[in-house]
Amino acid sequence: MTAPTAGAPLPGLWLSGPASPLDVVAARSQMALSLGWHIILACLGVGLPGLTAFMEWRGIRTGDGTYTELAHRWAKAMGVLFAIGAVSGTILSFEMGLLWPRLMGSWGHVFGLPFALEGFAFFTEAIFVGIYLYGWDRLSPRAHLLTAVPVFVSGVASAFFVVCANAWMNQPRGFDLVNGRITHVDPWRAMFNPATPPQTVHMILAAFMVAGFLTASVYAVGLVRGRGDRYHRLGFLVPFTFAAIVTPFQLVVGDWAARFLAHYQPAKLAALEGLYRTGSHVPLHVGGVYHNGEMLYAVAIPNMLSILVGESPDTVVIGLDRFPPADRPPVTIVHLAFDTMVGIGTGLLLLGLWLLISWWRLRDLPRVRWFLWLASIAGAAAVVALEAGWVVTEVGRQPWVVYGYLRTSDAANPAPGLYGGLIIVGVVYVVLTIASVYVLRRLARRGADVAPQEHGVPSERGAARR
């Protein structure tokens, strides 16, 4: 497979002329807004069903109504989030065609398979979400619990398939390019490209972290306010422990992903570290601002980048000097986003270790109030790390939408008026955000008011399951 001349247009496109720089910015901004909003709901759709099923299983196993009541509450939230996520996901589907017609028109038949499979996963999830929500008190406890399994599996599968498509954009495979024409298309090879393993694992673990820390933070706020009953303690401990267990694995996978970049996307790795000059004994830069080929105000750890990439200070790391200026990502944005992601991930790891040490010594939460304050913002911090990670993935690939084959500026819709669409979509997401927060807050308050476990009394459903 040979790459075309950088940015060369492919035949068969019905649109003529390039998009203006302002329209390219509008298309990228709208896509970033939609993806950044939807990805939060997608993470909850991946992680929350598993947490809910676990709580229901514990309720059945122990007869403790607290677990059952939490599972019931989370199931309602899961239904609300699924409905809202379906709306934002539909918007994204239209945007792929409306904003990037040259991408979909020329390359859709190459990387469209994971989108089709994601559609099957979505419909399976939708069916069983309905059964799970409707089945409370209508199915036997074990039969009802089993209906949660397809919801969890379908949610993870949806995330896997969508990230496969994004991985292809980073490492396009599964086709030959002959005289500027795409031939010998192999959708399965395109789907399982070299970027698929690190990206999919990294994203699914991130979804588990976001779902766990975000759910736990709701109950951490209640604990800060003095609600130390079993309902709030379990509501905090279970998802927080789950997310804390996932976090060290995520850091290991992150290292795997960075090593992958060294071999397959060296320009992105160079941007992550603000590395201009190719060489060995390359330091790792923490913080700082990239300016004229130098990292200013950064803390440099000697030899560390070479060691992380090749396990030796003598490992040569490719810098930005090997790439034409037009093919270099915007370094400062990518570097700061990467540092934000890693910094928050490290902080969450330390917070989890704090809980582990306290539980090992006292069999209780840390008695320092600072722990609960930090835990209450851990969910928001995990979301920020998630968004920063997607900035690294997407902005770090620039100026390419299909790495090495199609530039972002060549893929955008040249039709005028894209800024109007950006404004409309922005208004839609403001409305969706307000509606989502309102419904979820009402649900949370009602749960706090009516939860019978606050006084140690098991619910009727919990008693029936004994």
TrEMBL record:
It is a multi-pass membrane protein. Its main location: membrane. The keyword Transport applies. It is found in: Cell membrane. Keywords: Cell membrane, Electron transport, Heme, Iron, Membrane, Metal-binding, Transmembrane, Transmembrane helix, Transport. The chain crosses the membrane at residues 37-57, 78-100, 112-133, 145-169, 201-222, 234-253, 333-358, 370-392, 418-440. Pfam families: Cyt_bd_oxida_I. InterPro entries: Cyt-d_ubiquinol_oxidase_su_1 (IPR002585). The keyword Metal-binding applies. PANTHER family: CYTOCHROME BD MENAQUINOL OXIDASE SUBUNIT I-RELATED, CYTOCHROME D UBIQUINOL OXIDASE. Belongs to the cytochrome ubiquinol oxidase subunit 1 family. This is Cytochrome ubiquinol oxidase subunit I. It comes from Planosporangium thailandense.
